[in-house]
Here is the input.
Amino acid sequence: MRRMIDTLPRDPAAAAAQLDDQTVHVWHLGYRHAAGRRPLLRLLAAYLGVDADALRLEQDAHGRPRLDPPRGAALDFNWSHSGGHALVAIARGIAPGIDVERRRARPRALALARRFFDTAEADALAALPEAERDEAFLTLWTAKEALLKAHGRGIGYGLQRLRVAAPPQPLQLLRFDGEDVGAWQLRPLELAPELIAALAWRGAPRELRVAPWLADIE
Here is the structure.
């Protein structure tokens, strides 16, 4: 497994020059609902060397954001936001999936797991002390959503179609209907104490390069 390296420069244009087919770049940005996808467009514009006003985002049939028209050979991205935080994954030659959630109480975590998760995952959550269940649920949720976003079908494909090892076990993909589990990478992201996040992609291991926190991006 390749290691995470916290060495991306704060300047997105400088970071873009470091993106190759052996790395995945992860950006941790501030998020304001009023700004919408503007921070994402600014970041992508820096990687593509164009003006952000020249870019337009649309969603495919499964809700995955993409540039219209496509730009940048083999450049792909994904993003997720929760509260005042947004994460963006950018890569070449693979389709990354990323998801983030704020740590918070989830009173219905077990009921939701029984309804939407794989049976073994729900049973593993039920076996945990109640005080540990909320964080374990969010760990599973972000991992499964990151995987489904990377898969391309999104959460609508069905959270029960894949099984992830539940905490306290290390994060690991155990089953994915119709997929070779060994072809997938799943990585937890520890970017801030208040966040639980995961990154996934189909392909060989890569280095993760993480940019410093940016409250705003110009």
